[in-house]
Amino acid sequence: MAGRIDTSVPHPARRYNYWLGGKDNFAADRASGDAVVQLFPSIRTAAIENRHFLRRAVTLLAGELGVRQFLDIGTGLPTADNTHEVAQRLAPASSVVYVDNDPLVMVHARALLTAAPGAGPTHYIEADVRSPERILREAATVLDFSRPIGLMLIAVLHFIADEEDPHGIVRRLVEALPAGSYLVLSHFTGEFLTPEAVQAFRTGAIPVYLRTHAEIAGFFDGLEVLEPGITSISHWRSGPDPQPRPDESETATDCAVARIR
């Protein structure tokens, strides 16, 4: 496994780990991360707030909404309050399948993302979100697709180019889930950046495709978006978190949770 990790090329999961203050990153990841800081100085705030959104969303699903299965695609490197930890604190029997395309993530996942004794299964798939059929096929060996599933697409779709049809990928994943499932999604937006910065993100070492509010809203077409709707990650049901909240221009990331009917 370690032999397949190319430390000379930056990877989104390791760069994200760098912004969060982690140690599981390499010089190429740090250089790429610093380049993004030049374009968007509050990127570290955005990364932290994105994790807080994940925690609040999983708390809602596993608590009030009673979801007991989660498919987390683009999970990233393990950190505090991973999906299975949040879900299993509220409902120990919760099952979680993680998906990521970085071999280093899988190395750490197998070592660190272990469920507590008596808790539901935690499984790992090394795959890319661009391969929804494979993900669904392998996830079905752990998850029961006749019962509601929480589909987590946290800060992953902005790495998918328009020509790779990110909306179609989400549609395929959503169509495979039963009614009563939920889509949890966050996505970096270019609404608060200059056109020059948006273009620089597209042509960077790790291309990032910043989309408009309207384009992000398109991921939720046909779904029942829960209150407070499609909004900033720093504002979504953030009442319990420390106040005041970061301004939406500091996080530049839209999010929502929607029910699949």
Explain the overall architecture:
This protein has 10 helices and 8 strands. The chain is of the alpha/beta class and 261 residues long. It has one domain: Vaccinia Virus protein VP39 (Rossmann fold, 3-Layer(aba) Sandwich). Strands 1, 2, 3, 4, 5, 6, 7 and 8 form an 8-stranded mixed β-sheet that branches. Strand 4, helix 7 (166-175) and strand 5 form a beta-alpha-beta unit. The longest helix has 20 residues, at 43-62. It starts with 11 loop residues before the first helix and ends with a strand.
Spans of at least 5 consecutive residues with low confidence: none
- Total number of distinct structural domains: 1
Radius of gyration: 17 Å
H/E element sequence: HHHEHEHEHEHEHHEEHE
> How much helical structure, as a percent, in the residues?
25-40%
* CATH fold description: Rossmann fold
The CATH H-level superfamily is: Vaccinia Virus protein VP39
- The number of helical runs is 10
Structure classification: alpha/beta
List the helices and strands and how they pair.
Elements: H1 12-19, H2 27-39, H3 43-62, E1 69-73, H4 83-90, E2 95-100, H5 103-112, E3 122-126, H6 132-139, E4 150-154, H7 166-175, E5 182-188, H8 195-202, H9 213-217, E6 224-225, E7 231-232, H10 248-251, E8 253-259
Parallel strand pairs: 1-2, 1-4, 2-3, 4-5
Antiparallel strand pairs: 5-8, 6-8, 7-8
Helix pairs in contact: 1-2, 3-4
